[in-house]
Amino acid sequence: MPEIPIRPNNSIPITIGILIILGGLLVLFDGGGAIFSHYSELTSSQAEDQVEILKLIGVDITVDEYLQWDSEFKESNYHLITGLIKFCAAIIILIGGLQLSLRKQMGINVSISGGVLWFLAQIISIYWATSIESNMNISLATQWDVAATAMCFICNAFCILLPLIPMFAPSAKAALTPIEQKIKSHNVFQEE
User: What is the pLDDT of residue 60?
Assistant: First the structure.
């Protein structure tokens, strides 16, 4: 029985690549914001503004406690280290998304690697922040933080699962340029 060739659907890996690039940009801004907050100095007027906002969402804290909380996080290099990990994960996610947009099969592995690194950064961030807050008995955790964390994990799941779609959709898999084919075509040109 003759095998029916599968018609490649180029739009699937390109669309997934664009979505992954957009997600990578969000992670890049998140990591950059964490690094920026590590190096920025908090003035007392900025702390007063933050305390007023925190009181609106139900956190009972004074300005001095907030300044102590901020200094503890900066002294432990929390924002710097988690920001750098997220920044590296974002670069990997962006590279994988670009490769998928160019219909390269390697983009699947690269995107998944970046998504897994971002997942590890989130786990490290949650446990490290909790331990810092428990050591100084000041917690700024609210229901909004739980919702934001859940949204980050959902976005992270998309960054890990979206690149898998071309592996299971035959028309999308046919649109990707396999690694072996690139190596073979490169060797043919070298022989000539």
Answer: 82
